[in-house]
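hey m, so remember when u said the tokens were messed up on ur end? i reran from scratch. heres the input so u can diff it against urs
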Amino acid sequence: MGFLKKFFRNVFREEGQPLTTSSFEHLSEEELEAHLGVRRYGDFLLTDAVRPSYDLQVVPQQGYRHDNYHDDQSKSDVPVLMASASSERLF
């Protein structure tokens, strides 16, 4: 799992950008392995592509919401629809 810790540490790193703290940063290999092994949060079954942060700032649940994405470079707003569904509803 060492490659995952390196990935989380370096994936969003850009020159001149301050480093942000990741909830995965100080985990042992065993803690990371255990976290990635959790598939269910209450009634919500995760797909293989999704894992929440270690500190569960956002607990997975089924639902949707309307929002806007603001692009600072072009100064434009794009309406978006964000949705999540439990794995057994998808497959």
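this time it looks ok to me. The chain has three helices and four strands. if urs says something different then somethings off w ur setup not the seq
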